[in-house]
Write a structure and sequence with these properties.
By secondary structure, the chain is mainly alpha-helical. The protein contains 15 helices and 5 strands. A hairpin with a 2-residue loop joins strand 4 and strand 5. Pfam families: ABC_membrane (PF00664), ABC_tran (PF00005).
Length: about 450
């Protein structure tokens, strides 16, 4: 409905029970509390009025059971009753109820209306605006508004509307009477058919159970425990976080997606660039240690030596720059190739997954794989390998150049390397696990954002 003119003023808080129930991927109790403080007496009265006690007995952990993504392990009526219980527990001043009894059975609907919505229910002192097609509740309403083609055609009490014999309300009641009569005939036929099928099934199961009764005469409950345990494991299972070192097959898988030819080409180019860097350092060391500049050599000899060393350094510098440029371009191409192949494989697995996979895996975790984790693969993994290779080569060339000029430096390298490796043992473990925990913490954010959009729609 849209307001075309006039003003709308609301006094007090408002609670909405939408026609499409909104539930979170959390426990049943947390869905009802919705961040409010837990009051045991109030909570028990609300769940009893909303006819949820029998449902709690069927769940593995009662009201502490996880209900799964979008309430996957709940029926439509259970989700609607949880949504209604959340609104009732919120204790608002005004309640907007959008056909809250459409997804429940007739006897459950009567129980909820009598104990929650009706004149003697928990909301008897609240303002209740309920949209419904059920004519059985109309006589209990204080005021009835008839909507026709999106506009209010008439309003009044139940008795006053019945007096307008040609009104939309009376026409609606007549149409519903004819419809209900046809539905009742169909329901009676279905009831007879289901009763016959049930009788046959019961007789067969009775013979089967007699053969499977344990020796002590007590009925076997092992099967029911297995079902409950499976449900508990499926819907209460948290995303697992790896611990320890990253297995080598993870890196091998990345290089496999990159391609053998691309991997060998990148390795060759980085070795070439490292060779030029090492040669540059050695050439500079030779220049500084040349005796021509120390002895009383002629200016022409010194000039020739300078030109020789400058030419060599220029050639080595140009070679190193060219090798680094070629390696950077090749690395960018290889990383794009690897990222594309990984994304294709991930997308293919998701598209070919069974529907039960999406029932037990939260949507936030799947979105996290395609967003945050994919971004890490695109921009983090490949260039981290490059930085590792460059740092290693720079370290080797630097140490090689120093040892070439000062061989006694090896005495200082050994304790420095030992201290560095000792510190790395603690740093790498901590940094690696923090990255894993950070990746896991992103999944609930995506899930919450998706649930919020689902609820706002």
């Amino acid at each position: 409905m849209y307001k075309h003119n006039g003003t709308v003023s609301v006094k007090g808080s408002v609670a909405l029970v939408a026609q499409q129930a909104f539930v979170l991927n959390a426990t049943v109790r947390n869905n009802i509390l919705f961040g409010a403080e837990f009051n045991e007496d109030k909570y028990n009265r609300v769940v009893a009025a909303c006819s949820l006690l029998s449902d709690f007995e069927m769940l593995p952990k009662g009201d502490k059971s996880m209900i799964g993504e979008k309430g996957i392990n709940l029926s439509g009526g259970q989700k609607h009753r949880i949504s209604l219980a959340r609104a009732v527990y919120n204790d608002a001043d005004i309640y907007l109820l959008d056909d809250p009894l459409s997804a429940v059975d007739a006897h459950v609907g009567k129980h909820i209306f009598d104990n929650v919505i009706g004149p003697s229910g928990l909301l008897r002192e609240k303002t209740r605006i309920m949209v419904t097609h059920g004519i059985q509740w109309l006589s209990e309403a204080d005021e009835i508004y008839i909507m026709t083609a999106g506009r209010m055609s008439e309003h009044g009490t139940y008795e006053s509307l019945l007096q307008s014999h040609n009104g939309d309300f009376v026409k609606f009641l007549k149409e519903r009477d004819d419809y209900i009569g046809d539905v009742e005939k169909l329901e009676k036929f279905k009831h007879k058919l289901s009763y016959r099928q049930k009788s046959t099934t019961v007789s067969v199961n009775k013979d089967k159970n007699n053969n499977e009764t344990p020796a002590d005469g007590s009925p076997s409950r092992e099967g029911s425990h297995l079902v409950e345990d499976d449900e508990e494991d499926v819907y209460d299972k948290q995303e697992q976080v790896e611990t320890g070192k990253v297995a080598w097959n993870v890196y091998l898988t990345y290089f496999k997606f990159m391609g053998l030819r691309n991997t060998l080409l990148g390795l060759l180019l980085i070795l070439v660039s490292g060779g030029f860097s090492l040669a540059f350092s050695i050439w500079l060391s030779l220049w500084t240690g040349d005796t021509v500049f120390v002895n009383n050599s002629t200016e022409s000899v010194k000039q020739a030596a300078v030109e020789k060393y400058l030419g060599g350094m220029s050639a080595l510098g140009i070679g190193e720059i060219s090798a680094v440029l070629c390696f950077t371009l090749a690395a960018a191409y290889c990383f794009c190739e690897a990222s594309g192949n990984i994304h294709k494989a991930l997308l293919s697995n998701i598209l070919h997954a069974k529907s039960s996979f999406f029932d037990v895996k939260p949507l936030g975790m799947i979105l996290n794989r395609f967003s945050k984790d994919t971004d890490v693969v695109d921009t983090g993994v490949g260039w981290s390998i490059v930085y590792l290779a460059w740092t290693t080569i720079a370290l080797i060339t630097s140490i090689g150049g120093i040892l070439y000029a000062t061989p006694f430096f090896v005495i200082a390298i050994i304790p420095i390397a030992a201290l560095y490796l000792y510190i790395q043992r603690f740093y790498i473990c901590t940094a690696r696990q923090l990255r894993r925990l950070s990746s896991k913490a992103t999944s609930p954010i995506y899930a919450h954002f998706s649930e919020t959009l689902h609820g706002s729609g």
